[in-house]
Amino acid sequence: MTLTKTKSKLAPLNLMGFQRDMLCVVGVLLVISVTLGSAGDIVHQDDVTPSKKGCDNNFVLVKVPTWINGIEEREYVGVGARFGPTLESKEKRANHTKVVLADPPDCCSTLKNNLSGEVVLVHRGNCSFTKKANIAEAASAIAILIINNRTELFKMVCEHNETDLDIKIPTVMLPQDAGMNLKNQLEKNSTVSVQLYSPLRPLVDIAEVFLWLMAVGTILCASYWSAWSAREAAIEQDKLLKDGSDEVLNLEDVGSSGSVDISTTAAILFVVIASCFLVMLYKLMSTWFIEVLVVLFCIGGVEGLQTCLVALFSCFRWFEHAGQSFVKVPIFGAISYLTLAISPFCIAFAVVWAVKRQLTFAWIGQDILGIALIITVLQIVHVPNLKVGTVLLGCAFLYDIFWVFVSKWWFHESVMIVVARGDKSGEDGIPMLLKIPRMFDPWGGYSVIGFGDIILPGLLVAFSLRYDWLSKKSLRTGYFVWAMTAYGLGLLITYVALNLMDGHGQPALLYIVPFTLGTFLTLGKKRGDLHILWTRGEPERHCPHIQLQPSQ
Fold first, then answer.
1. pTM for this structure?
2. Residue 106 catalytic?
3. 400 is catalytic
4. A Pfam family this protein belongs to (predicted)?
5. How do strand 143-147 and strand 119-123 relate by DSSP bridges?
6. H or E segment at 228?
7. How do residues 84-123 score in pLDDT, each as one tens digit?
8. Catalytic residue among 400, 441, 468, 529
9. Among 367, 453, 468, 529, which one carries the catalytic annotation?
10. Domain range for residue 279?
11. Does a structural domain hold residue 163?
12. Residue 541: which of 239, 229, 240, 233 has the closest Cα?
């Protein structure tokens, strides 16, 4: 990306140029994950496979808990067929039913079994799924389990010329390993019984509430930190000008911290760079590539956590001297003693998370590192005016929609959602996400939000607060409260859409950008500030000793 760098003498960040640039690069790479969803869709609509009367069910995941000789064993997950009745959604209403092996095993001819209300276990192949189901129903089976010939699940559909679709028993496919385990137990003369039910997800899970609070709270904290830094820098520059100090002439070379302004060109190039990186993730998605992303995430997380902790401890007078005393370190340059003291903890925290990230509670560490990284990126990277913000969010809006929806036409699946879920990687997903376990969801999984859904609109929200403070606007006459509220509402609407779509991943920026950017542009136009917001942006960038007072 083409970035324009500016420095301020008293900015509170103590990042050297090398560290700052590295953090910005890592942050840009991590921003590409801009989608929101819940981990694992349980209902799958399908507009490709044939649909007709008697064969128009949605594909639903099915829980299959098993009992061997009366002892509860593993629970498997299958998929329901396009045909047949819908499955029970309540576990307590699903019957424990004995399982028997089909004879013949493929259930393509009349069964020799003397069935009386059992579930029949059959192999896939040699005839259609509907024929198997009809034969099993004729033999008095109450359900049919079909063992797939692969470890993944397969959508069971009807053939175009099939007419005998008045099937009264449910049909469920099991992965090959699950089906073979049950078959082996039956061949040992063990008594096997199962339950078949497909529980519904709750309309709203508490995880989504906490995720919303995390996203809004992160932008809120980052915006106030960014505005405070900008105001302190403006006050210092104003003081130097009033004193007639020559030091202001060398401001670009003074201090060890600063911000990075996004240019219009960089905002446009974002789409190209992010798209290339996303396709690379999609094509190279594997265990080793996830490891590379984890390393990048840890580097950014360490820098972010270190920066946030240094800024936090510097607020206490006990650490003030350590924060202002520096030692020169090769490559990194001058680093405060406080930073040196905090860095080992941050590195250890990231390493422990990386090693233990498969544990059930590892999401806590991922969220801590992610939030720290997001806050730091929003503190360092600035949108200088509304024009750049509009271009950036407009491009991100199109990027999000293209890779979530339109990419299905070329890749036959949503590239963004595949990458976000970490398909083919052997893990729960890429690390560039904030995630919280779905606490009251019978299917488990996580509610997730991509870093880009926070950082990109957060850049505009942070700009609004910097503008308000530097223009001496109150909360009522300013833009921050409106921008922050618009972001919160946009994210809320995203969750509503997510639940209405049965958990299918949604491009959050599809809803957030119109709310946030639309509110800003409309309000600026109504108040007569749009020209200043669009072209000049933050007052101190042009004349630090004069406080601009746009029309109220």
1. 0.80
2. no
3. yes
4. PA
5. parallel
6. helix 206-243
7. 888 888 888 888 889 999 889 888 988 888 788 889 999 9
8. 400
9. 453
10. 206-239+258-536
11. yes
12. 233
